[in-house]
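--- STAGE predict ---
source: upstream dedup step, 1 unique chain passed
mode: sequence only
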Amino acid sequence: MEIRGPLELPAQREDIELRTADGLTLVGELALPEGADPVATLVTLHPLPTAGGFMDSHILRKAAARLPALANLAVLRFNTRGTTSPRGTSEGAFDGGAAEQFDVAAAMEFVHERELPRPWLLGWSFGTELALKYGRDHDIAGVILLSPPLHRATDAEVAAWAQFDRPVVILVPEFDDYLRPEEARERFASIPHATLIAVDGGKHLWVGESQTRRVLTEIVAAVHPAALPLPTEWPAPR
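--- STAGE serialize ---
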């Protein structure tokens, strides 16, 4: 069958809870490859919850549905404080990206406790702000930013990544609603080792199977390039 839309490929899926340093319980899911140890881990940070973002925002849901099977990756998704999805509601209230630093820390502590390998922060929109603001506080293999709006992360917080020896991969849609490639190149110029990928025809929400495949391919290219090209059929042809 063709791999597209909501198709969920085989994986070990576990409902999890994260506990923050300020006493909240956050709900989430961990998806692991079946029958093999993961080679790396995606710690996903979802778009703005006050605009409908949550752990099931489609790119993150499809990453969890496909990449354990296609690229041998672990995928951790969770709702930040006060956010609701079919998985449930995380305790607390949206704090505009401030107290959410404890949510990021709780996810990274879970990764450490489970001994999940090579964690990459994968942020989308609001999630990129959390990654930029707080990712340097943690032992990560790198960071991937999808549609960064740069509304909350300051120029100083962006520039600080120049001193952080980890890959910074930035996917900027041609027709983004908030930050388009030309301006993004200027705003991220303070990180000499950043890789900025302008996606022709892309929009902020990455709607459509072609955009989904492009984003998932760029994620795997950064994290586990040996898994490319990603199959488009399941079972994958040998």
